[in-house]
Design goal:
Blueprint (H helix, E strand, L loop, with lengths): L2 E8 L5 H14 L5 E5 L6 H10 L3 E4 L9 H12 L6 E4 L6 H9 L7 E11 L6 H4 L4 H12 L3 E5 L6 H14 L4 E4 L7 H5 L50 E7 L10 H10 L4 E8 L7 E7 L2 E7 L6 E7 L3 H10 L3
Parallel strand pairs: 1-4, 1-5, 2-3, 2-4, 5-6, 6-7
Antiparallel strand pairs: 8-12, 9-10, 9-12, 10-11
Bound molecules: guanosine-5'-triphosphate.
The site of guanosine-5'-triphosphate has 22 residues, from helix 1, strand 9 and strand 10.
């Protein structure tokens, strides 16, 4: 029996991990034991730690590059290892700059095609920023192409962060999405909250499964069931197959650490000010920091020009991962060091 795979893609900070968290919680309630693969552009595993902290899930981490291009060969190996543990399903969260079509191809090729099947490809969009992507990233043609691929490959498109925009923006996003993909189910969400019943339909604990898992047909919003045009068990791969191109050219991830003995020395305001200084090039920042005004370690998330703080139990040394377009590493490191002098 082939193991169903759910792929989560979508630009940096759109809400993929938020969605994966709720899929994992629902899976636990259903008695499922999924395998989770998390790919991060940076060297630190921020999202994997969040998942482990909130759900106890064991997460396979592929760090420091993108498994759709620069680290493509690592994904198949990681999945083969994971399959040895006989998971009921596999959930793969991609980096924000990954092309999901390449992942689908990997699933379709040896050695995986006999063992796994694509259950659903989901793309999450950040409603507050999605309309700006084409103009903001026009200098990185590969990235613009990748963002289009994220739309065309999806069976389900989750337009998230709808709390941050006016209804008119949602209509404009729907119009653009439909130019790229007229068949995917489209839902507007707050904190990636979707109806998980249709998504997980057909995924059963392996010792109870009577039939092969079915493709997740769409009932994410009310209305009649609507099939995708892909045949059952087939994938959204477009012919002819091309060589995998890099999915971006100007995005880099840089990890900043705190000098020894200075782990508690930055305030929230200083960090937020630091993010703001880089907002022309900074796309995403996330990390675990200690603040003089908080007892608990703080998970800091900068996404779409907003900074969010949450208590965390992260036990390690503080750090912040910066992901941006054409980030000048030397200058970034120099300014970071200056904060501690
Ligand atoms: N206001 C608002 N914030 C949200 C919503 N969904 C997620 N967030 C916040 O946005 C930030 C990024 O969410 P994630 O789920 O980590 O996004 P992601 O796509 O996994 O991010 P990367 O993996 O780094 O690309 C977090 O601080 C979330 O709490 C939403 O619907 N509204």
């Amino acid at each position: 029996m082939r193991i169903p795979v759910i792929i989560l893609s979508g630009f940096l900070g759109s809400g993929k991990t938020t969605l994966l968290l709720s899929i994992l919680k629902e899976s636990t309630e259903r008695g499922l034991h999924p395998g989770v693969v998390m790919n991060e552009l940076g060297k630190r595993d921020v999202d994997g730690y969040i998942l482990q902290e909130h759900t106890g899930a064991r997460v396979e981490k592929l760090l420091d590059g993108c498994v759709c291009c620069s680290r493509k060969e690592e994904l198949a190996g990681a999945l083969v290892q994971l399959l040895k543990r006989s998971p009921d399903a596999i959930y793969i969260e991609l980096t924000g700059v990954a092309n999901p079509e390449e992942i689908i191809r990997t699933l379709e090729a040896a050695p995986l095609r006999e063992q796994v099947m694509l259950h659903s490809a989901i793309t999450v969009l950040d409603a507050e920023n999605a309309l700006e992507y084409n103009s903001r990233f026009s200098a990185d043609k590969q990235l613009v192409r990748t963002l289009h691929k994220q739309l065309t490959a999806a069976h389900l498109i989750v337009v998230n962060k709808s709390d941050l925009v006016e209804p008119d923006t949602l209509w404009r996003i729907e119009k653009i999405v439909r130019k790229h993909n007229n068949e995917a189910e489209l839902v507007f969400t707050h904190y990636s909250e979707i109806n998980l019943t249709p998504l997980l339909a057909g995924i059963l604990p392996r010792n109870r499964s009577a039939a092969s898992p079915q493709r997740a047909y769409q009932t994410f919003k009310s209305g009649a069931l609507r099939k995708t045009s892909h045949e059952e068990g087939a994938v959204a791969v477009k012919e002819p197959q091309e060589e995998p191109a890099a999915s971006y050219s100007q995005v880099t991830a840089i990890t900043l650490t705190f000098p020894p003995g200075k782990g508690w020395s930055l305030t929230k305001e200083q960090l937020e000010q630091f993010f703001a200084e880089w907002d022309g090039s900074l796309l995403r920042a996330k990390g675990h920091v200690r603040l003089p005004q908080e007892d608990a370690v703080q998970l800091v998330q900068y996404a779409g020009l907003r900074t969010l703080w949450e208590d965390s139990r992260y036990p390690g040394q503080p750090y912040v991962v910066f992901i941006g377009m054409n980030l000048n590493e030397a200058l970034l490191t120099e300014r970071w060091s200056a904060l501690f002098t």
